[in-house]
Design a protein that fits this description.
Elements (H helix, E strand, L loop, with lengths): L11 H15 L6 E7 L5 E7 L2 E3 L2 E7 L3 H8 L2 E8 L4 E11 L2 H8 L4 H9 L9 H15 L11 E15 L7 E6 L8 E5 L2
Antiparallel strand pairs: 1-2, 1-5, 3-4, 4-7, 5-6, 6-7, 7-8, 8-9
Helix pairs in contact: 4-5
């Protein structure tokens, strides 16, 4: 699509899917990478890259250690924003909304879909907390590897979970020559309501 000024659809999820399919074909690494912005209850922001692991009309899903810094901020303030930037396509999408925790079954299923070493690494990590030295983590990984290698999987730690962002705003941005960029913002007052949309000045 060369322009978003003439979008016929009122469904931003359909437009996201169209752009995401194209990104998966053109981005050299991690087309599902997205910036996740959270904030503390008093408004101090922080941002980091995470990977999108599920999406649809019910929202956008990612997984994390809920005892990490971002996990703590999410639990204290269940609002967040996402940003996808696909440099190869010169496009970005901003998404804003509320967060909800995925079910235990969803978290279990995704955790055990990961490679064994990834399961071990996640279970061994006190993510975001101070570490005395790297060998401490390496030793934890080795111990869990030995304990669970025969089974081929690690029990999911209770604090390792996922969150679904249910959007109330989605903004699509397309680079244009001379920085005359193309922007369209979709908004709705609450989930389940119809979307409205408008063009924005670049």
């Amino acid at each position: 699509m060369d322009t978003i000024s003439q979008i016929p659809s009122s469904d931003p999820f359909a437009l996201f899917e169209e752009w995401f399919v194209e990104a998966k074909a053109s981005e050299p690494n991690d087309p599902n990478a997205m910036a996740l912005a959270t904030a503390t209850p008093d408004g101090a922001p922080s941002v980091r890259m995470v990977l999108l692991k599920g999406h649809g009309s019910d929202g956008f899903v990612f997984y994390t250690n809920a005892e990490s810094r971002k996990g703590g901020e999410i639990r204290a303030n269940m609002q967040a924003a996402l940003l996808f930037h696909w440099k190869s396509l010169r496009r970005q999408i901003r998404i804003e909304g509320s967060l909800e925790e995925v079910t235990s079954d969803e978290a279990d299923a995704y955790f055990h879909s990961r490679g064994f070493l990834s399961q071990v690494g996640s279970a061994a990590s006190d993510q975001s907390r101070a570490m005395p030295d790297r060998q401490t983590y390496v030793d934890r990984v080795a111990a869990l590897d030995a304990e669970h290698k025969e089974a081929g999987k690690v029990p999911r730690p209770s604090h390792w979970t996922g969150f679904r962002l249910r959007p109330v705003a989605m903004e699509f941005w397309l680079d244009r020559p001379g920085r005359l960029h193309d922007r369209r913002r979709f908004t709705r007052a609450d989930e389940g309501l119809a979307w409205s949309n408008t063009l924005l000045y670049p």
